[in-house]
Structure formats: C-alpha cells, structure tokens
C-alpha cells in the first residue's frame, strides 16, 4: 500500500531535473492510490503491501528509481494490471524509514513521465518495461501561451483568496516559471484535484494542452469555492441572527430573574409550537392552529380571549388526526367474540363479519352506517360494544334521547361564552383514535325546537359522501369522520326523519322466544347477577321449570331487562339469608317451580279466564308495541236500543276507523249469514279492547274486530286458541301487516296454538325461528271468509 502523506516542491532548485539521470527502460513498479505523482514533485509515501515493500527494496539495491503508477480503484488491495493507469511517473527514492508496524515510509521525487509497455514479472515485485515520455519545451514568445499562464496565476490567486491553502513559496516559484508545462504540473499537484482530473493532466504530453486543462479545472474549482463561500455566508448570517436572538433572550431572562418574573409564557408558546409540529394535522388545521398561536403570543396573558384561544389550540392538538387502531381482521376470532357475547342475532353478526371480510380485501373501504331497530332490552347497545371488541376498535356511546339543540351535534361557535365542540368531536377525542365504533343511541327520540334540528345536523355525520369533511362549528376546520363506524339504535322507525333513515342500513332485532331467553339466562344473566350479588353456585341453583315460570309468569317483554331484574332479586334474597346467618343458610338454595313464589311473590301475569274457553264475542288479536309483540282481547256486546257503535278502551283514530270498516263489512255479510235485515236497526254495538287505561292504536286490528262482530251476529263462538292480525277492506280483503315476527312470538308466549295471518306476509315466515314454527300452526288468508271459517266454530244460533 502506498499513500500520500504531504506534498512539497523542490523549491530550492525549481529547475531541478533539467540534468535528470538516465532512466533505464526496466524498473520496479509501485502502485499508489488516491494520489497522482507529477515530475519534480517531492512527497512522502507510506508503503505497506508486500510487493510494494519489495519494489522499494529493489530500487534501493539498484539505481534508487521506481515507476509510480496510480491504481484506478482506491479500495482494491491487489490491483490487476488493467486496474492501474498506463501513464505514471518515474521517481527517485531519496530517503527510506522502516516503521514499527512493518510499513515503510519513503521520500520520493518525481523525475519524468513514462508509459508502461508490458509487465516483465510479478515476483518478488512488479517489474515493468517503460517508455520515457520526453518533456516538450514550451513555445518561446507565444502571446497566447503567455496569456494562458497569466490567467492560470490569476485564478490561482483568487482561489487562495477564497481560502485555499497554498504556501507562499509555491506562489513565488510559479511567478518565476517560464515553462508552461512545469507551471501546469505544479498547479495540478497543489490544488488537490480528484484522481481522474489529475490523471488527465498527467496524460497530457503537450504543454499547451496541459495548461488549458489546468485552466479549466481551476475555473471549475473557483466556481465551487464561490458557491461554498455563499453557503457559509448564509449559514453564518443565520447563525449570527440566532446568536443575536439567543443573546437577547438571555438578557431578557436575566432582567426577569432580577425582577422576579418567570418566563413561563414564552416556554408555553414554544411548547405549543413544538406540539403543533408533531401533531400531523392536515394543512388547513395546522395553518389555523399556527394563526391562533400567533394571536396568543401577541396577546396579554390576562386577556379573557387568551384562555379561549388556548383552549381551542388544546382541542386541535388533542384530536386524533392520524392516530387509529388497527382493525382485527381475523374473521373466525371475530365470530367467536360475537358468539361469546350474544346468543342468536345471526343477521347482525353476519353483517359485521361481511364488513370485516370487505376490509380484509380492500383496506380503504368505508365503514357501514347501521341502525339496529328493536324493542328495549334485546341487546342493541351491548351488541355495539361486542362489535368494537371483535374489530379491535375503541367504543364510544352517545345518547340522542331528548337532544334538541343542533349545537350538541355540530358544536357552538367560538363567539359564545363557554363554547365547546359538538358531542361527535368530543366522542372521537375521548376514544383517542380516528376510527372508533361510535354508537348513537335512541336516534328515534331526537327532539326539535327553536335552537335547531339535531336530526338535520346528523345528515352530514351519517352520510359517507360528506362526513370526510365534517366541519364542527367550534373547530371551524374539516375533520374526517369517514373512518368512524357509526351504529344507531332505535325502538321504532316511524319517528326517524326519512332523509336520515335513508342514510342508514336498517337491521331489525325482534324479541326473544322463551327458549332463547332460557339459554341467555343460563349463559349470561344468571352468572352475571350471581357475581354482582356475591353468591355462587354453592349458594343458589335455579331449576329449569322455575326459570321457565319466571320467564312466563313474572315477566312479559320482548327483551331481557325485567328477567335480569327478577334473577337479581332472587340472588339478593339468597344473599340476605346468608348474611343474616339464618338456619341452613349456608346450604344450597334450590329455586323450583313450587317455591318460586316464596322469593318473588305470586305470579304477575296469568292466563285470563276468558281465553281458556271458546266464547261468543271474544277474540284474541296480535299487536306490536315498542316492547315487542302483545296479545289484545277484543270484546263485542250488543244491546237493544237505537243503532249505535260504542268504542272503548282508549282506541286511537286508526283503530276507530278499523272498527267502522269491520262493522260495515259485517253488515254487508248479514244476509249471506242468515242474519235478519233489521238486526242492526234495533241494537247498540259496543266494542271494547281491555285494558281500558292503556292507549292503543294501529292498522292491524280490523280482522279481529270483524271476527268478533261476525261471532255476535251468528252466535258462533270464537276458537280460544286462535290469534289473528291483519287489516281488512270493505270488500273483505285481508291486507298485510308489520311486526310479523314479534306478533308470532307474542302468540307463542301467550300459549296460543294457531295464528291467522295475511297471505301477503308469507315471505316473512323465513324470519320465524324453528321453535316458533313448531309451536304454532300458521294459516295465511286472503279474505275474511277464510278467517271466519278458521276462527269461528260451526253451528251457532242467530239472535
């Protein structure tokens, strides 16, 4: 290995080498790297490679001459012949010093250019055959050459003035040189050229060509130095400005310390600026935050508006602009979580799993906006929590019941005292992620008054085409809600505005059957209440018969809330006995059908006596309520008197019209059924729907009312195990109804064995659980004639 240490010129004899010794045509070759040796230059080299040390030894044992050739790649340890330049310099070894680490330091002086012709041997060192390149004398009196030499000297002086380190001795030598070739070599050796550029100068044989190349390289170097100086000047100016500001801050800090004033304000501004840079806000939000921060900086801390601005900036910083939880797209695991938390509800679970499958195939897919509609207590809200757990997302819940102010959704403008963002933005901030599962509970109970219409404000929130740029009045900058999965809940669809309903995918959750309630109670409700009330399986056991009785006779609902309350009541009764230390309290308390009344009192819901036998003028109708399906007993009685229709039972307008239509139909069928023509002219007809204190209304009682009227007219009893529903026309056609599944569940809970339903509801049979289908006999009818045939017993006596 040969490396350059430093480079000097034989300044004591600038014309040294004019009487150069004869150079043989065979010399040992020493490859050098990262340096180009020019003629008449003196420089030290560090030699470490084995063959290179051998070349130095061979030179010292002979005429002290070496052929120095530069290798093309610096990193190559053992260069091949084609990896070494052909043109090199013959040099004289002036001194040699062996170092402790085995290397050799030699001082060499360049003598002449030479070209390598061939390699004669490579052991113990490289031996090459040379051709010495004679130095051509420069033209005498050539004006162009003289001008070029002056230009080179001038550019070199400019380079020195720009900070390039060249000794004054070198400049003195250059001033006295008349040989253009020698001038070019000395300049090239002292301006630290790249190896490739220096080799171009070394390979140029003609002095004028060599000088022109040096002139071009100096010009390029000068331009680089000018740009470098400009950069340094700009950096120095910026540094000077920063140092000046730092000095002023230190002075201000010293003054404040003397006055006992702390600079918390300045530190606060710097902290806020740093947080804004790290918050990764969108461009518009960041510009607004920086603008408000500038206002805060120029505002007195005691100003009332300063606290408003500070609160606003804190809101912008705390919002999760880019932070999001990673969706769990393991579909089997998500299904396992949903099944673990909720029994049945297959339609909802399938919809969530389908969404996860779409997200797995297309990660940028927007989330669905679902609306769970069903009676209270069927698990709508808890289902949202399970969805969040299955997807690995945060869960946020917001109740819309009774909300009347639009600002609850969009937020207040900052001009108002105590302004805050809307509850949508507050919920996202609380979640700490931009993609939570956001549940909007009781969307059917939103109010409206002079302060605005919250349901209209929700249109933008729940519209996937708009909510990517949702603008809260308080923030006043767009916020992306498209990653949020919104789930709404409602008991009824009718109060929801059509425009809002159109933006949601509605999924109906019907009530549970007795068997489903029993399984849910065993799997979820009983273990949860036992844990909450502090009892264990060692203390209490509820038999299957007792649980069925609890479901049928102590609760009557579509959901599970009252059932869970009664189970909690049982657990508390047992807990009290254990706590009081009653005799035998530590033994297991087995709750059976026989002793259930001792804990909960007598049953609250018993079958009515009138429905246990076939009666004239009494029929069982099926109705839908917010709590699910219910049965209604419709009674008709006739009395002598002027023709009149009496309706009682707090019937609504729709049911009153159904009664009028049923009466008109019955009168039109009187002759066909053998009823005297003057039957209705001598009688008052009273239709009553117990219980009288409960308001009732709906469009599906016409069939039941017509049936009891026909029963009274013909004297034919109504089958007591038959429930019916449907609206009728004056011609006796039976029209379709809603709440099909809920009404069928109510019929099964009430112990009916047959239901009469409109034919046009046949498609809804697919939603009926298999156990319900097994427990009930379904008759789908088109006309009232079919209803009369199925519901009325044969025979009878006409009044």
Q: Proportion of β residues?
A: 15-25%
Principal-axes shape call: elongated
Rg, nearest Å = 51 Å
List the quaternary state of the chains. Answer: single chain
Number of helices: 25
Keywords:
799 residues, 25 helices, 41% helix
Provide structural commentary.
This protein has 25 helices and 26 strands. It is an alpha/beta fold and 799 residues long. A seven-stranded mixed sheet has the order 20-21-19-18-22-25-26. It starts with a strand and ends in an 8-residue tail after the last helix. Helices cover 41% and strands 18% of the residues.
Brief summary of the model shown:
With 799 residues, the protein is an alpha/beta fold. Helix content is 41%, strand content 18%.
What topology emerges from the helices and strands here?
Layout: E1 2-4, E2 8-9, E3 26-32, E4 41-47, H1 50-61, E5 65-70, E6 87-98, E7 104-121, E8 126-132, H2 143-161, H3 168-176, H4 180-190, H5 195-203, H6 207-259, H7 264-278, H8 283-297, H9 304-318, H10 331-341, H11 346-361, E9 370-373, H12 380-391, E10 395-399, H13 407-410, H14 423-431, E11 437-441, H15 454-461, E12 470-471, E13 478-479, E14 485-490, H16 498-501, E15 505-508, H17 514-533, E16 540-542, H18 544-553, H19 561-580, E17 589-591, H20 596-600, E18 618-625, E19 628-640, E20 644-648, H21 653-668, E21 683-688, H22 702-714, E22 722-724, E23 727-728, E24 734-735, H23 740-749, E25 754-758, H24 770-775, E26 777-781, H25 784-791
Parallel strand pairs: 3-5, 9-14, 9-15, 10-11, 11-14, 16-17, 18-22, 20-21, 22-25, 25-26
Antiparallel strand pairs: 1-4, 2-4, 3-8, 4-7, 5-6, 6-7, 7-8, 12-13, 18-19, 19-21, 23-24
């Amino acid at each position: 290995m040969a490396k350059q240490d430093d480079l000097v010129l034989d300044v004591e004899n600038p014309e040294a080498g004019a009487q150069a010794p004869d150079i043989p045509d065979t010399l040992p070759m020493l490859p050098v790297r990262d340096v180009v040796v020019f003629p008449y230059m003196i420089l030290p080299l560090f030699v470490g490679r084995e063959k290179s040390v051998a070349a130095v030894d061979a030179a010292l044992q002979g005429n002290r001459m070496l052929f120095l050739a530069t290798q093309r790649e610096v990193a190559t340890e053992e260069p091949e012949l084609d990896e070494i330049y052909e043109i090199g310099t013959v040099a004289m070894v002036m001194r040699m010093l062996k170092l402790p680490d085995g290397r050799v330091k030699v001082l060499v002086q360049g003598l002449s250019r030479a070209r390598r012709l061939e390699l004669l041997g490579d052991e113990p060192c490289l031996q090459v055959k040379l051709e010495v390149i004679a130095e051509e004398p420069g033209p005498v009196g050539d004006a162009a050459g003289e001008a070029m030499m002056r230009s080179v000297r001038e550019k070199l002086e400019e380079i020195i003035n720009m900070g390039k380190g060249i000794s004054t001795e070198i400049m003195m030598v250059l001033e006295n040189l008349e040989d253009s070739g020698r001038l070019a070599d000395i300049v090239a050796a002292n301006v630290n050229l790249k190896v490739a550029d220096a080799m171009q100068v070394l390979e140029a044989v003609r002095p004028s060509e060599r000088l022109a190349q040096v002139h071009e390289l100096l010009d390029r170097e000068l331009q680089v130095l000018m740009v470098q100086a400009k950069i340094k000047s700009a950096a120095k100016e910026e540094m000077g400005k920063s140092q000046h500001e730092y000095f002023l801050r230190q002075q201000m800090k010293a003054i404040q310390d003397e006055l006992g004033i702390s600079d918390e304000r300045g530190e606060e501004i710097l902290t806020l600026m740093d947080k804004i840079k790290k918050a990764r806000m969108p461009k518009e939000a960041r510009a607004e935050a920086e603008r408000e921060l500038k206002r805060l900086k120029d505002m007195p801390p005691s100003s009332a508006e300063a606290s408003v601005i500070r609160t606003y900036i804190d809101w912008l910083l705390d919002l999760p602009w880019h932070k999001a939880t990673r969706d769990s797209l393991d579909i089997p695991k998500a299904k396992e979580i949903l099944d673990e938390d909720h029994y049945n509800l297959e339609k909802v679970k399938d919809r969530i799993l389908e969404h996860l499958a779409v997200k797995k195939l297309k990660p940028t897919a927007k989330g669905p906006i679902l609306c769970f509609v069903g009676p209270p207590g069927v698990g709508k809200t808890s289902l949202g929590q399970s969805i969040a757990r299955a997807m690995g997302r945060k869960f946020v819940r917001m109740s819309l019941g009774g909300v009347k102010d639009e600002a609850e959704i969009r937020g207040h403008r900052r001009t108002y005292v105590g302004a805050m963002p809307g509850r949508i933005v507050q919920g996202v901030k609380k979640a700490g992620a931009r993609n939570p599962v956001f549940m909007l509970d009781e969307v059917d109970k939103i109010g409206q008054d002079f302060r605005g219409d919250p349901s209209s404000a929700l249109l933008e929130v729940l519209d996937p085409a708009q909510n990517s740029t949702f603008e809260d009045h308080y923030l006043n900058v767009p916020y992306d809600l498209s990653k949020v999965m919104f789930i709404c809940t409602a008991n009824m669809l009718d109060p929801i505005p059509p425009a809002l309903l159109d933006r949601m995918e509605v999924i109906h959750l019907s009530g549970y059957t007795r068997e489903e309630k029993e399984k849910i109670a065993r799997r979820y409700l009983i273990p949860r209440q036992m844990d909450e009330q502090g009892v264990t399986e060692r203390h209490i056991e509820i038999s299957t018969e007792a649980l069925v009785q609890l479901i049928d006779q102590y609760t009557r609902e579509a959901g599970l809330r009252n059932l869970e309350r009664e189970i909690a009541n049982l657990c508390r009764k047992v807990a009290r006995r254990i706590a009081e230390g009653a005799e035998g309290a530590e033994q297991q308390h087995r709750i059976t059908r026989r002793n259930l009344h001792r804990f909960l009192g007598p049953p609250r819901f018993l079958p009515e006596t009138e429905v246990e036998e076939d009666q004239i003028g009494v029929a069982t109708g099926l109705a839908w309520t917010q709590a699910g399906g219910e049965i209604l007993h419709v009674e008709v009685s006739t009395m002598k008197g002027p023709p009149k229709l009496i309706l009682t039972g707090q019937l609504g307008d729709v049911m009153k019209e159904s009664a009028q239509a049923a009466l008109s139909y019955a009168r039109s069928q009187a002759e066909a059924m053998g009823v005297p023509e003057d039957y209705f002219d001598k009688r008052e007809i009273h239709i009553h729907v117990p219980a009288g204190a409960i308001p009732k209304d709906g469009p599906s009682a016409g069939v039941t009312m017509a049936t009891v009227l026909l029963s009274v007219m013909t004297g034919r009893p109504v089958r007591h195990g038959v429930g019916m529903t449907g609206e009728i026309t004056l011609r006796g056609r039976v029209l379709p109804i809603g709440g099909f599944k809920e009404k069928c569940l109510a019929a099964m809970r009430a112990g009916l064995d047959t239901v009469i339903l409109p034919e046009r509801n046949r498609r809804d049979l697919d939603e009926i659980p298999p156990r319900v289908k097994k427990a009930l006999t379904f008759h789908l009818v088109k006309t009232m004639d079919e209803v009369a045939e199925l519901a009325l017993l044969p025979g009878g006596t006409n009044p």
